[in-house]
Amino acid sequence: MTLSSPENIAFSKARGHAxxxxxxxAIVITGHRGFLGTAVTxxxxxxxxxTVGVGIADSARASASACAIxxxxxxxxxxxxxxxxxxxxxxxxxxxxxxxxxxxxxxPPTDYRRNVEATAFVxxxxxxxxxxxxxxxxxSAAVYGNPRHLPVSETxxxxxxxxxxxxxxxxxxxxxxxxxxxGLKAAVLRIFSAYGNGLRRQIVYDLCRKLYDDSQHVVQxxxxxxxxxxxxxxxxxxxxxxxxxxxxxxGVYNLACGIETTIxxxxxxLRELSGRKAEIEFTGKSRAGDPHRWQAxxxxxxxxxxxxMVTLDDGLNSYLNWYQKLN
Length: 327
What we know:
Number of domains: 2
CATH architecture of the largest domain: 3-Layer(aba) Sandwich
Strand content: 15-25%
Strand order of the largest sheet: 3-2-1-4-5-6-11
Structural class: alpha/beta
Largest sheet: 7 strands, parallel
Mean pLDDT: 91
Distance between the termini: 35 Å
Low-confidence stretches: 1-23
Number of helices: 12
CATH topology of the largest domain: Rossmann fold
Helix content: 40-55%
Order of helices and strands: HHEHEEHEHHEHEEHEEEHEEHEHH
CATH superfamily of the largest domain: NAD(P)-binding Rossmann-like Domain
């Protein structure tokens, strides 16, 4: 793919919507075709930025990208350096990486490469070719493992319980290194339980898949049902990323709604909203890497002016509509 200048990229997407000075602000989004990458890309595509996507499609079912221009590059790859040199982004949103705890147990080296090595590579590219770029890492609450106290704050001790959580934490430590040693500006968002239209994995998708299977009169789920998560919709995550970029925030922030929801409660709400009749049972067996309870202290981020807007019921209703159209 031929590289274009930031000005050409901007005007190909947004001519007439803002001044030329504003439109030359390029935002690079790695992993732009993944679940969260897609949400971030679609959010920024209607803003006065030039969106530049770097990544590969997760599957043949991946949706078309909303980026002004995109590069099919799986990180780490030295071709990425050329993109950074020519685009000179104002910000880089690092969405690339894995998001599968179970897979990280099966294949730790691949998880390490995609989360740790890719993050280090991107940071080094910025240090060399765009040192004033604002770096935003989408990390995970998996770095906390099983918190000792709830709600868990950013100052809590991080004791991950999966290779995925360990690798996300190492990525954060590399960010710290580039901030302290090289003066890069960076923000880390520790995302709790993300969900939203387009997600084809994890608990909300798994529940829908089982509830809509007419051959199953009983839906079985791992655990006791008392396990809890703090759910955050992808639209709120994308809005938070824009907030971080526009406010030039730095440091580590929890990204969630600050509300603890048990898996039993989630299952009951999905069954009620969907109108399905299957009974829900819990096996009592836990899976490696699954935390027991999660609830985030989101005070640090909300103090900067950001507030999640999507309620769980609204988000689940939207997801159900998407899922029914999918099937």
